[in-house]
């Protein structure tokens, strides 16, 4: 993800990162994201979620040191053990809501 006055979710870093982490080359066809701020007394924490829709253009799924299992599933069939903060942005994307800032 590139930073600056505006974050560009579809940058070339995403396909490179995908190939490095899971072994497939992708073409990003859609993207969205959101930033959630948790204010604190002395500082705030910002959680940035980036959701990419991509078409596989080469390679095959391969586990890396960061994964135990890789598989495809429909968005409405998210695994029960998905990281809780990731559920809402994926659901927003499936519903066609983009650039949700909360």
Report on the architecture of this protein.
With 102 residues, the chain is an alpha+beta fold. It has one domain. Helix content is 21%, strand content 31%. It is built from two helices and two strands. Strands 1-2 form a two-stranded antiparallel sheet. The chain is globular and about 45 Å long. Mean pLDDT is 78; it is low at 1-7.
Question: What is the rounded Rg?
Answer: 15 Å
Which structural class do you get from the secondary structure elements?
A: alpha+beta
Mean pLDDT: 78
Number of strands: 2
Main sheet attributes: strand count, strand direction, barrel closure: 2 strands, antiparallel
Provide the spatial order of strands within the biggest beta sheet.
1-2
Q: What is the H-and-E element order?
A: HEEH
Ends distance: 20 Å
Q: Helix segment count?
A: 2
Q: Strand share of the residues? A: 25-35%
Specify the oligomeric state. Answer: single chain
Poorly predicted regions: 1-7
**In the residues, how many domains can be counted?**
1
Determine the fraction of residues in helical runs and give it as a percent range: 10-25%
Shape: globular
């Amino acid at each position: 993800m590139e930073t600056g006055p505006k974050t560009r979710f579809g940058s070339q870093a995403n396909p490179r990162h995908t190939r490095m982490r899971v072994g497939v080359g992708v073409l990003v066809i859609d993207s969205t994201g959101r930033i959630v701020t948790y204010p604190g007394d002395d500082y705030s924490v910002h959680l940035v979620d980036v959701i990419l829709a991509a078409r596989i253009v080469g390679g095959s799924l391969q586990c890396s040191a960061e994964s135990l299992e890789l598989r495809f599933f429909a968005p409405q069939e998210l695994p029960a053990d998905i990281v809780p903060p990731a559920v809402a942005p994926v659901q927003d994307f499936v519903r066609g809501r983009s650039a949700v800032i909360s």
